[in-house]
Specification:
about 725 residues, alpha+beta, 7-stranded mixed beta sheet, 17 helices, about 25% helix, globular, binds dioxothiomolybdenum(VI) ion
Length: about 725
């Protein structure tokens, strides 16, 4: 029986629930000292004076680092900047500039965490404050052109927009807004830095051990092979841990200054600014269609906030470029500069915000034209990627609409707003399309067969809580003819064979083929050993006659000629057998456009008197190629949907515009869904074969789950109430 596809329990599950999985802040290091960051209290200006004398005299204090005394770094700490995902513009105490409130401006190292926290409050900083840009609506009046949107241009034009508008029978032209959001993984960013001579070991919570190693090495001006990053477990990443932020390098600087290993863990308020977030957007969306419902013109103008340190772009219009067959189309991206910490990748960056605007606009157009929202989407289904003019590697979108609608009971919906009232409860049903690119990068792996016949397979990838350990164990087990419990998979160490960032929903698609390649090479070595050995029952057979199962090699033509792997190794001196492999995408990447697709349906109950919105049920149907583990896969999709509920109804980082400061920088006031907020979530993965994406036919599932959800809920709220809320989150004040 093959293991891939089975709903195998997480192989790291017991370690997690028994507390034996070691997260970054939990590694036991002798002589560990504790660091606490001091954050800026102004949004723009200079540090005019520093007085750390009192803090330095406090009990247990080992060192206080400020811009006055911090080690000078090559290129003022910017040697690795401008190379995302890992390489960002950092704040490393190299000068007196403050670019945003909550920027690291000093750091205290002490014997205990409490002593460091206490002393951090006694580092006195005086500021020369300058006028700060804190108001998006003012900043957007002076927009900045980003140079590009991901790998493509910031702006696109196809066909003739004006002609398309002139030919339309109906159109809508409206603006949607999404707020600033912050990732808030349960595990905060955490780093332990240990110097042994010139060698630095970092226990760092990261989505990218290799990028982390290279970025820290470059920033400090040391060779990459002098740095090792270890990260066996991550308590959630969602994009914020894809980059190496200031605190990682600061921990290394502090450890060197202190002459001791140093642990630096961000507290919850420090998660709002220095480690990225989703920028706010204003998206103007024009959709025009002919009498038949076919789109004649689409215009999507995106304005997104960024910092003064980087031109980070939320690529919200990319989804519009590829989603529907629209012959005349214009998309633009502009930036509005604010004194905030630089935004970053946040689960489905671009698609999460962009699909809210596009899929709400499709719903508005459907009402305008009195056509069913699914029908409108079907009429505009793109047979091939209309922007790249390439065929899809696979596309199950129409099947997702059909299966999703059926499971959800879409046919029961009376399309008239406020038509499905039940007493004081307004009931609404809404839907939206979902999509996310199917990415893949080069990856390497190694595989060892141990004398007892079990295997260890390794790759320098990461498990963010997503299931990488489990799925890679399954892939390796199948490739080695072993049961999954005979395979141990190791990851999360920059000294392992190199793998890409666990971002862009690409880990399975990238790492699985490398694991397969390493296992195939190992299998070949094992078979050669057996066939060449007169003592083996398989001696002299043809290699293509050899099969493997449950730790045995046997001949297909004569199944009683068989022996266990361990016997082969025992004859070979009892040594382990080693092999390595690598894999990367070929020309298929140029020939096909690769995306996951889905359709999401939401039912909402709105209290007619109080405006409170509940979401009793959501159905999501997805085409994601081959699902390698039904359990972890469904969990991934479900997690995305839950986040979509939060995005729709709760999440926003609120700023005090006088100070440019996040005022709800904690989990009590930054609202995310809890169990009581989530109703039934019905997920179906439709059968889909993708022969092009990678040898396993598996597309990514980490991010598509959030896409379309906010739109489906907003559309359901309109259906329930007749109120079109275009400004997230849909809080009750907007419905009263
Ligand atoms: Mo994902 S936002 O690319 O970690």
């Amino acid at each position: 029986m093959t293991s891939t596809g089975q709903p195998l329990n997480r192989v790291d599950g017991v370690r997690k629930v028994t507390g034996t999985a070691t997260f970054s802040a939990e590694h036991k290091i002798p002589r560990l000292a504790h660091a606490v960051l001091v954050m800026s209290t102004i949004a723009n200006g200079r540090i005019s004076a520093v007085d750390s004398a009192q803090a330095e005299r406090m009990p247990g204090v080992i060192a206080v680092l400020t811009h006055k005394n911090a080690p000078r770094l090559p290129s003022a700490g910017k040697a690795a900047a401008g190379q995302p995902p890992a390489g960002r513009v950092l704040n490393l105490l190299q000068d007196d500039r403050v670019h945003y409130s909550n920027q690291p401006v000093a750091l205290v190292v002490a014997e205990t965490l409490e002593q460091a926290a206490d002393a951090a409050r006694h580092v006195r900083l005086n500021y020369q404050a300058e006028q700060a840009s804190t108001d998006f609506d003012k900043a957007k009046l002076q927009p900045v052109d980003p140079k590009k949107a991901k790998d493509g241009p910031a702006d696109t034009n196809r066909g003739n927009l004006d002609a398309g508008i002139a030919a339309a029978a109906a159109q809508i032209d409206v603006a949607y807004r999404t707020p600033m959001e912050h990732h808030n993984p349960m595990e905060p960013h955490a780093t332990i830095a240990v110097w042994e001579g010139e060698h630095l070991t970092l226990y760092d919570s990261t989505q990218y051990v290799t990028g982390d190693r290279n970025t820290v090495a470059k920033t400090l001006g040391i060779a990459p092979d002098k740095v090792r990053v270890i990260c066996p477990y991550v308590g959630g990443g969602f994009g914020c841990k894809g980059s190496t932020w200031s605190h990682v390098v600061l921990a290394a600087m502090a450890a060197r200054r202190a002459g001791r290993p140093v642990k630096l863990v961000l507290d919850r308020p420090q998660m709002f600014g220095p480690v990225g977030g989703r920028p706010n957007t204003e998206q103007r969306m024009l959709l025009a269609a002919g009498k038949d419902g076919a789109l004649t013109a689409v215009r999507h103008n995106v304005l997104a906030s960024t910092s003064f340190q980087e031109d980070w772009l939320e690529t919200a219009a990319l989804v519009t470029r590829m989603m529907y067959e629209a012959p005349n189309q214009q998309t633009t991206h502009r930036l509005a500069r604010l004194n905030i910490g630089t935004p970053t990748f946040m689960r489905a960056p671009g698609e999460a915000t962009g699909s809210f605007a596009l899929e709400c606009a499709m719903d508005e157009l459907a009402y305008e034209m009195k056509v069913d929202p699914i029908e409108l989407r079907l009429r505009n289904y793109a047979q091939r990627d209309p922007e790249k003019d390439k065929p899809w590697s696979s596309n199950a979108l129409r099947e997702c609409y059909r299966v999703g609608a059926e499971r959800f009971g879409w046919a029961r919906r009376d399309p008239r707003p406020m038509s499905m009232r039940d007493g004081s409860t307004l009931i609404g049903m809404g839907m939206a399309s979902a999509t996310y690119p199917a990415n893949r990068s080069a990856a390497k792996a190694s595989a060892s067969l141990l004398p007892d016949g079990s295997a260890v397979v390794r790759s320098g990838t990461q498990d963010l809580g997503t299931g990488t350990y489990t799925v890679m164990t399954q892939v390796a087990a199948d490739a080695l003819g072993l049961a999954p419990d005979k395979v141990r998979f190791e990851l999360g160490d920059s000294s392992l064979p190199q793998a890409p960032v666990s971002g862009g929903s690409q880990s399975v698609a990238s790492v699985s083929p490398a694991v397969q390649a390493a296992c195939a090479a190992l299998r070949e070595k094992l078979v050669s050993l057996a066939l060449a050995d007169q003592r083996s029952p398989l001696a002299g057979a043809r290699p293509d006659d050899v099969a493997m199962e449950e730790g045995w090699l046997f001949l297909r033509s004569s199944t009683d000629r068989r022996e266990p792997y361990a016997a082969i190794l025992a004859r070979n001196g009892g040594r382990a057998l080693e092999a390595s492999g690598e894999a990367k995408a070929g020309s298929e990447k140029e020939e096909y456009s690769m995306h996951s697709f889905g359709a999401v349906f939401a039912e909402v109950h709105v209290d007619a008197d109080l405006g409170e919105v509940r979401v009793p049920r959501i159905t999501g149907a997805y085409g994601v190629g081959q699902l390698l583990n039904a359990k972890t896969g469904h969990s991934q999709l479900m997690g995305g949907i839950v986040w979509g509920v939060g995005m729709a109804l709760m999440e926003a980082t609120e700023y005090d515009l006088r100070y440019g400061r996040a005022v709800n920088a904690n989990l009590a006031e930054y609202h995310v869904p809890v169990n009581a907020d989530i109703g039934a979530i019905d997920i179906v993965v439709v059968p889909e074969k993708d022969a092009h994406i990678n040898p396993l036919g598996a597309k990514g599932i980490g991010e598509i789950g959030i896409t379309g959800v906010a739109a489906a809920i907003a559309n359901a709220v309109y259906h329930a109430t007749g109120k079109r809320v275009r400004d997230l989150p849909i809080t009750l004040d907007k419905l009263l």
